[in-house]
Write a sequence for this structure.
């Protein structure tokens, strides 16, 4: 007996049913909730396709989260089976979807993410930015402060970049100066090689500073989006 197939029509139907159940638990418009539920179910369905799963396994292997990835995929498939089964209760499916949402966040950010870090993940709309942000949070590179999110190791990373740049320059300069002392280079050649060593060192370390600048921009943009905005409007006089 084949398993029931989850189609776009069935996702829409189950989402409408779940929205009615969810609206009884919380305050909110069911018309907005069913669209969010449908998007969530469809996202999990697409992420469980064979090619996506292979890519997720590879990424999880690189980040040493393969076991957690297996568990998350199993939970996603269980939820999708509930969604495809017309005989499953709406309450069970809604509970599974909510639990899966928590598991997804824990997988991306870790179990000790702060409320501000969770909000930061929610406003990340670009997949690449979201993945990079989650990586930084898991590695303890983004922390929460009273002012918002902050890149905790930015200064250390910048110092490390400059140190690596200086090491490349010093090593190449040592080699070229030694060649000049040995008579293999004249002064003009030595100056040219020294300038070239600076340029080469800058090229080799440019990626470190580019990545740091991108991370700082991401945190700055997230803080801007998470900052409360004043309500426009003038008091009315009666």
């Amino acid at each position: 007996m084949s398993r029931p197939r989850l189609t776009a029509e069935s996702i829409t139907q189950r989402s409408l049913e779940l929205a009615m159940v969810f609206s009884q638990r919380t305050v909110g418009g069911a018309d907005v909730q069913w669209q969010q539920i449908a998007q969530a179910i469809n996202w999990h369905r697409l992420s469980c396709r064979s090619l996506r799963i292979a890519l997720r396994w590879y990424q999880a292997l690189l980040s040493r989260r393969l076991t957690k990835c297996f568990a998350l995929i199993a939970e996603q498939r269980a939820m999708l089976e509930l969604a495809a089964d017309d005989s499953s209760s709406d309450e069970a499916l809604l509970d599974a979807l909510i639990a899966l949402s928590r598991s997804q966040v824990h997988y991306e950010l870790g179990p000790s993410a702060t409320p501000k870090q969770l909000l930061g993940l929610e406003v990340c709309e670009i997949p690449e930015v979201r993945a990079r942000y989650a990586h930084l949070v898991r590695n303890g590179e983004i922390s929460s402060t009273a002012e918002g999110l902050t890149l905790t190791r930015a200064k250390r990373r910048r110092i490390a970049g400059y140190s690596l740049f200086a090491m490349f320059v010093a090593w190449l300069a040592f080699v070229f100066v030694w060649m000049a002392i040995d008579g293999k280079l004249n002064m003009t050649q030595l100056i040219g090689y020294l300038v070239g060593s600076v340029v080469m060192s800058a090229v080799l370390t440019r990626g470190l500073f580019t990545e740091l600048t991108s991370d700082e921009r991401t945190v700055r943009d997230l803080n801007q989006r998470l900052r409360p905005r004043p309500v426009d409007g003038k008091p009315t006089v009666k």
